[in-house]
Amino acid sequence: MQDFEAAPPQKIEFSSVLAAAVHDMKNSLCLLIQSIEQLSDSIDAANIAASKHVADVHYEASRLNTSLVQILSLYRAQLETLPITVDEHFVADVIEDVLNAVKLSVNQRNFSVTIDCDPDLAWYMDGELIYLLVNDAVINALRYGNHAIHVSARVADNNLIIQVEDDGHGYPDTMLAQSTRALSSTAVSQGRTGLGLYFARLIANAHNRHGLRGEITLQNGGKLGGSVFMVKIP
Predict the structure, then answer these.
(1) 82, 76 contact by CB (below 8 A)
(2) Which of 52, 107, 137, 151 has the largest CB neighbor count within 10 A?
(3) What share of the chain is helix, strand, coil (3-state, %, to 5)?
(4) Burial of residue 78 (number of CB atoms within 10 Å: 0-12, 13-18, 19+)
């Protein structure tokens, strides 16, 4: 009788398993968001309470979906495989896509959204990543603002500047300080100052041209007196 040695147990990379699970959750959540939007369309406009509940669920599902996308992107960045596909995009189209994605929450929360962007303004950038970045900034403005959001885009000193402003209480001092630290020292476990800010800075930093890299700036004030989120893409 031949003896067989038991094969050594295979080592499982927990980070890879977690990334696969997050990817699966993200796909399921996207389907859920689509179903919520379809449900919203079928609700009688006179049923204000039901519309509000559906809008709240849609908002929270969108926030969760954004967080899952951020986690996946950060995992790929750790593997040095953060997908960056730079091409020419109309900035107004990216902003419009973002606002269409949050339209349900904007309407239900009675927010006024204004846009200042030349429809012919085009820039070389990763359209999908910039969409995610602006989308997260708008979702935060919906959460921390009162009733108004202003989104603008312009070119200054050969850089594309996109700003998202709200009429809330502004960023806390701790977050303003966090935004000026080196990317490598940014903490990702401090609530509003963590994952979203790190992800935004990672995306901006990945855009580089002629030795210049993108930047994220957080300020208070602006046109609406609240938070001002600004991304600069060279």
Answers:
(1) yes
(2) 137
(3) 50, 20, 30
(4) exposed
